Amino acid sequence: MNVFADMRYFALGFEHFLFSADHVLFVLGLFFLVSGWRRLFATFAAFAIAQSLTLAAAVLGWVHVPQAPLEAAIALSIVFLAVEIIHDRQGRRGFAARKPWVVAFGCGLLHGLGFAGALHEVGLPETAVQGALLFFNLGIMASEVAFVLAVGFAIWAPRSIRIHWLRWCETLSVYALGTLAMYWTIDRTILITAG
After folding, report:
1. What local confidence, expressed as pLDDT, does residue 187 receive?
2. CA 8 to mean position of chain CA atoms
């Protein structure tokens, strides 16, 4: 596999994360749930490791999961995260708030399978599957890191200058995130039962 082909798969992975609303919203939800850079790093590391494992397993043919139920489960993972965030805001600290890296790992397994579906749609070169997989995964991770840094700055910069309306905006954002994810869950479940 040549460098241009490698970079093509890197770019595809980078774009796929940024233009995949459900994956972006899950990562955004982790920001609202996790406080502190060290816990945030552990949480995102667990998510990245898990998604890499299932992405590789699915692309290499070790795991086969029907795409429609998987998409519904990914949407449901965002609903779960939104509920946990709201409970945390209300002082009812749930499992996800106490052990976010465990939840991120479990949900990362689902999201990795979703990434594999996208990679299968694009197609893989017959002679360099491992290289395409590696660079696609690196593209996803680079995109996630860029997103995490941008959102981290956007969320924590206003906190440092004590903008009081920020908490209200965060809560509204979490309700919007949960509502959209619930819509996706219902819509994707209806498609499964109709098909």
Report:
1. 92
2. 22
* pLDDT, position 102: 95
* pLDDT at site 119: 83
Which of 88, 67, 51, 81 has its CA nearest to residue 182? 81
Q: In 3D, which of 54, 106, 67, 117 has the Cα closest to residue 84?
A: 106
135-146 per-residue burial string, b: 16 or more CB within 10 A, e: under 16: bbbbbbbebbee
Residue 85 half-sphere exposure, CB side, CA atoms within 13 Å?
Answer: 27
Distance from C-alpha of 190 to C-alpha of 80, rounded to nearest angstrom = 19
Domain boundaries, the chain: 3-194
Show the low-confidence residues of the chain (pLDDT under 50).
none
Instruction: Determine the number of helices (DSSP H) and then strands (DSSP E) in the chain.
Output: 8, 0
CA distances from 3 to 9, 17, 81 (A): 10, 21, 39
Whether 86 contacts 174, CB under 8 Å: yes
What pLDDT does 158 receive? 63
Residue-wise pLDDT tens digits, 108-151: 999 999 999 888 887 877 777 888 889 999 999 999 999 988 98
Q: How far is CA 73 from CA 127, 181, 194, in A?
A: 33, 10, 17
